[in-house]
Description:
Layout: E1 3-7, E2 13-17, H1 22-31, E3 35-37, E4 40-43, H2 49-60, E5 64-68, E6 71-75, H3 86-89, H4 99-106, E7 108-112, H5 125-133, E8 137-141, E9 144-148, E10 157-159, H6 165-176, E11 181-185, H7 191-202, E12 206-208, E13 214-218, E14 223-224, E15 227-229, H8 234-246, E16 250-254, H9 262-271, E17 274-278, E18 281-285, E19 295-296, H10 308-315, E20 321-325, H11 335-341, E21 345-349, E22 352-356, E23 365-367, H12 371-383, E24 387-391, H13 393-399, H14 403-409, E25 413-417, H15 433-447
Parallel strand pairs: 2-16, 3-14, 4-15, 10-11, 19-20, 23-24
Antiparallel strand pairs: 1-24, 1-25, 4-6, 5-6, 7-9, 8-9, 11-13, 12-13, 16-18, 17-18, 20-22, 21-22
The structure holds uridine-diphosphate-N-acetylglucosamine (UD1) and phosphoenolpyruvate (PEP).
The site of uridine-diphosphate-N-acetylglucosamine has 22 residues, from helix 1, helix 5 and helix 6.
Amino acid sequence: MTKIIVRGGQRLTGTVRVSGAKNAVLPILAASLLATEGDSVICDVPLLDDVMTIQNVLASLGAQISYNNETMRVSAPLISSFEAPYELIRKMRASFLVMGPLLARIGKVRISLPGGCAIGTRPIDQHLKGFEAMGAEITLGQGFIEATAPTKLKGAKIYLDVASVGATENIMMAAALANGTTTIENAAKEPEIVDLANYINAMGGKVRGAGTGMIRIEGVERMKGAKHNVIPDRVEAGTYMIASAITGGDVFIEGAIGDHLTPVISKLQEMGVEITESDNGIRVRSGASLKAVDVKTLPHPGFPTDMQSQMMALLLVSEGTSVVTETVFENRFMHVEQFQKMNASIKVDGRSAIVTGGVPLTGAKVCATDLRAGAALICAALRAEGETEVTGLHHIDRGYVDITGKLRSLGATIYREEAEGVATAQAGKSADSATYKREKEVAVLKVQPTWA
Ligand SMILES: CC(=O)N[C@H]1[C@@H](OP(=O)(O)OP(=O)(O)OC[C@H]2O[C@@H](n3ccc(=O)[nH]c3=O)[C@H](O)[C@@H]2O)O[C@H](CO)[C@@H](O)[C@@H]1O
Ligand SMILES: C=C(OP(=O)(O)O)C(=O)O
């Protein structure tokens, strides 16, 4: 079984570079379907399994794609299919984001209900409510959704019952080519929404107010491909901040944007972690003792749910009792059981987890129950006594570029053992089999485009 092996106890020091944001690049690549002419050139595209999934979805719809050196070029002058393949959509929730662009562009789409991390029921009612308000006719059956917009989508006033990131993005993309003006009230305010709006505007769209609760989109006739740099991944950055703090380390996270991480920075400071923000990154230094704090996840600018499990790992080594409350997803405490295998003292009570800090962590065999849970287990393992084996790596590979290589470059004792049993030493980055696997995948992308 493929696993990551961590020997705890090393203090992390040095510099780590943040990759482009997974949660920004996925909607941006979906939005590239809106351009009827010209290539889109998307820079800082991280080489992740989720990125490969979305590029395969786009290719299956008729887009032409190439990837080289973190740059993806997409052109979609013709859309050849209105059906997004089930086996790709079920893999990743964000692939559902092609629904808005397809409806706007060709007025027809057939798509299965999306898959993704099992962190809650994750309905899509707000996406569908938005499309219906714009005139789409939607039928649901046997796990599939069919939608048509016999006449062009029309601008509408849409109020979201929950400030859903995905629904805001999907509706924004559909509205970009609709007739008239759409307003989204109670829109999500995440930095990834702003990045998507910037890209849509670079393509000739007219989106205003992204980053606030009220977004206004004036539909345009046509859009052209554009060049765009994806924002740095705030969740990856936050994860390395925790990795530094949990090991009493001193790490500069290059590329991290402080404004995107305000709630995380503020909680870490409350705990006693020293944070220095600069133009090109964030330095995170931590001493021997950290204070317990309470954390409640909320939509942006609240504390991000995608950082909840990593934060819990840090609270395990703090002094005192903390209460972690998850309000965004109803089933995002599955990592608790895994932490408990590492001797953690945590009690779940409904939507809250009561964490008793300071109980020494010990290495164990654990399994990543979702993407961020996997990263959190690695953080805990960096501090634990002895060896930890983390399995369930398909989750981690969705969202972290070369996590073993990056942590090793900071001094961690961590390596990846592929299923074939090729365990490589912790020495150089290039010796890491995960990196090798990724290099192989890039090579495949280069020589054998999926649209061929
Ligand atoms: C690819 C991507 O960007 N994923 C992120 C995105 O997921 P995603 O876009 O799926 O998350 P949403 O913001 O839509 O979900 C937030 C909450 O709204 C609910 N909801 C959502 C849509 C809907 O139609 N009806 C409804 O009730 C969900 O069940 C959840 O409880 O935002 C989440 C919340 O910050 C993050 O954890 C994910 O990492
Ligand atoms: C939950 C996440 O992703 P997704 O919405 O793609 O499942 C995440 O990035 O932590």
